[in-house]
From TrEMBL:
It comes from Zobellella iuensis. Residues 1-254 form the EAL domain. Transmembrane segments: none annotated. This is EAL domain-containing protein.
Amino acid sequence: QKLAVGLQAALEKDELALHYQPIFRLDTGRIESLEALLRWQSPEFGHVSPLELIAVAEHHGLARALNEWVLYRACRQLRQWQLAGFDGLKVNVNISPTMFMRGQLAAAVAHTLRETGISAAALVLEITEDTSLWDTAGSLDTLHELRRIGVEIALDDFGTGYSSFSHLRQLPVNKLKIDKSFVADLSTDQRAFDLVKTIVTLAQSLEMAVTAEGIELPEQQQRLQQLGCQLGQGYLLAKPMPAEAVAGWLARDG
Ligand code: G
Ligand code: G
Ligand code: NA
Ligand code: MN
């Protein structure tokens, strides 16, 4: 309860921050996108993890305000990088699954894109695998509407949830992010290797691009490239960093 009051105040005082972690094309090494990750260093509560923040927001009716704040901030930041001359970048924004069931998400996204001057093709919404997504007609409508606008949808933490092949085939999703637990075991465990191989093949047959997250070792990156995984993210390549650090980093990266 105290945390919820604190979060409400933090939203109003603009005390929340987004950090950004680059996502790379594994073949060229070029940066493809920046994933926005929520950070709250509270004077009162210390560092609060984003998962806890989201949970508190969900319980206290603040989820919509929080998700819309993240969406707006990330798009506005991408516009600032574009104006500074960094072209061709996308931004990945995590959205809570419950937001897809409420019906206003597509309108809020369209509004934010107009307001910040970002094209739909530069926005990737990340959503975790959650069965409720495909149990609700409203969520499917929202996903279809977002794809119609031109926004990309990525299924995050793929492989840890419950999506069956038939669900996946019906979902208007065009990217899969392989969960970092599979990537972690990639170089040591044959079964993890086979599993990642299967996910990449599945994604190819569904015409979805694959991102591997949690790449920490060069061997993991090599194996992912061998398997035909197009995109990668992880501490080996770049860690999440404050927005102010990104421009300097982009200038060096070229
Ligand atoms: O960056 P970190 O490892 O602390 O993130 C922990 C989890 O919180 C991740 O699963 C991430 O997807 C989630 N998360 C981070 N930022 C956001 C956000 O802005 N919105 C939502 N809904 N989830 C987020
Ligand atoms: O659920 P989601 O994929 O959004 O979570 C991303 C989280 O993973 C972020 O909190 C980020 O800080 C973390 N992360 C990013 N790269 C790595 C990595 O290489 N290893 C580990 N263990 N975590 C990572
Ligand atoms: Na994510
Ligand atoms: Mn993930």
